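TL;DR need structure tokens for one chain.
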Amino acid sequence: MSYPIKNSCVLVMTYLLCLPNLMADERHDNTAKLLESNECVSCQMTGVWLYRANLAGATLMQATLSGANLERSNLERANLEKAQLDGANLERARMDRVNLREANLRGANLEEAGLPRVDLTGADLQGANLEKANLHGANLRGANLSGANLENANLEGAQLEGAILTQCNLKGANLERAILKRRDKR
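>> reply
TL;DR here they are.
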């Protein structure tokens, strides 16, 4: 006697049990692809370990790197537009001239990260830790920095027009020549 419902349940259970392994395989394959070609557009790499990785010039548009460890990695001139980096560890990462337009960096750790001339236009940095980060000349137009920690951060010459700074910690931050509001050119 055949029990189609029972067989269907077995197939669903098998799929659910194998799904984490399939996702791990995908993350592993995508990480290998990235390290080999320096490109992985729209890749799923949640929680990957890329400590001290050299990803200079990498193309990671719309990649999912939520919870990834990129501590001390070199991401100079990388394209991470619309990337998901929520909860990622980017402590002391080198990120000069990185494109992070509209990226999700909620709760990310960017302590002591080098972010000079980075483009964070429209990025979500709610609750991010940017303590002692170097954001010299960074473009933060329209970025959401609500609840972010920018204690002792260098924001010299940064563009902050339209940025949301609600409950943002700016204690000891360098805001010399930072542009907070567009000047009327009458």
